Amino acid sequence: MSGNDIFYNLQELLGTARQATDVPGAVAAVYHKGEIYQAAAGVVNFRTGVAVTQDSVFQIGSVTKSLTATLVMMLVEEGKLDLEAPVTKYLDHFNLAQKEKTALITLRHLLSHTSGIDGDLIADTGRGEDCLEKFIRLLDGVNLLHEPGEFFSYCNVGYIILGRIIELVEGAPFDKVLKERLLVPLGLDHAVMFAEEALFFNTAIGHVMGPRGLDHAETAFAPRSNAPSGTVLGMSARDLLMFARFHMNKGVTAKGKRLVQEKTIAEMQKPQVRIPLSGRYTSWGLGWMQYYWDGADMTGHDGGWMGMSAYLRFSPRHDFAAVLLANGPGALQLYRAVMEPFLLAGAGFRAPALPAAPDQKNFDLSRYCGRYVRHGQSIDITLQGSRLKACLGGEYMDGATMEFDVNLIEHNRASCSFDGIPMPVSGYFPGFSGKGRPAYFHVTERAFRRRD
After folding, report:
1. Which of 56, 62, 229, 236 is catalytic?
2. Mean pLDDT of the chain
3. Domains along the chain?
4. Neighbours of 399 (CB within 10 A)
5. Model's pTM, two decimal places?
6. Tens-digit pLDDT profile for residues 254-265
7. For this structure, is 62 an active site residue?
8. % helix / strand / coil in the chain, to the nearest 5?
């Protein structure tokens, strides 16, 4: 099937692929060389049976971070913020456990997930306009996992801090600034921040796999206090595609108005930190994941929250962008069946598979055994026979645990196999000590620090 054929057959491809996965409903939108293709399949809610339409609204999860980053860079352009300034310049109340290092954390660190903050704190501080201010006070005594700027570790808290800084500089709540500075100027008229706004649209709800099979997620909208990192914003696939095209058009809206300077857009897409062992992406920009494989280039972001998944990819060089939104636990399988063919047809992009793991007898596996921790989670790696086994648990798992295999590819790189995930996940072990033991285990985009 040729590139154009696959886009023209988007509806058939999405519909067939969705039926083979645990995804009640999905919507896709593709832009390629001046043409837009859209498709919708399934239902927004498996109990009501209401059909997904091309304008259905899905929560986009952490893709919100790319919008938050855009707001920050707009304020940098206006001279209201400085990327190299310490966070303490803008926040009077910012007291991490390592006080002497708190002042070393800059806005650039927050945008590129290199601050070192142990950053997956999730807390509901209410729906009032002071919710972000209250959240920042919960950070008193939070630890650093690593030195600021040392390496990459995904940090939701960093973007909540950025949201609060936006509020202080603009003198208005984050959601109001987002709407007035980005959503309205870009013409994103199928975007919502609150449950009551969702009532105006055909809005999807997330689904998870429960004890009795597929069921609704526990809640549809998460705390407003985590909004800048991606817990509340929802929009249609076409709206998210318009946001991607705004970045492809170097800061010019669909109506031809320049909203952000070209050099600012370029700075956001410039690699800030290389991640050579990720296996998923190659670097991180300012609010963007970056993928450079075999000469192909792709920029984007993923999001997942409460049974919802969002995938955004674009390549200005190929005049191509694609969005997939889904509301069930089989979203990754759907991504592989639908998005991967788009990326290949539209931009010649194909992510490489992880290398096969060699015979584990080639490694001293005992060096990797131990407990690795971060806020709310821990991973215990043990040697079972001739294999490494890992067990993920902790407060955020609500008493549950998840076991997975860790197969070393090299002394500092591993292939991790999780039940329910159709392909191995990359893991790596940075910071080997003089004793030949790793100081960290990096998996699911996050660093876990060794504590034994």
Report:
1. 62
2. 94
3. 1-352 (3.40.710.10), 360-450 (2.40.128)
4. 7
5. 0.96
6. 999 999 999 999
7. yes
8. 30, 25, 40
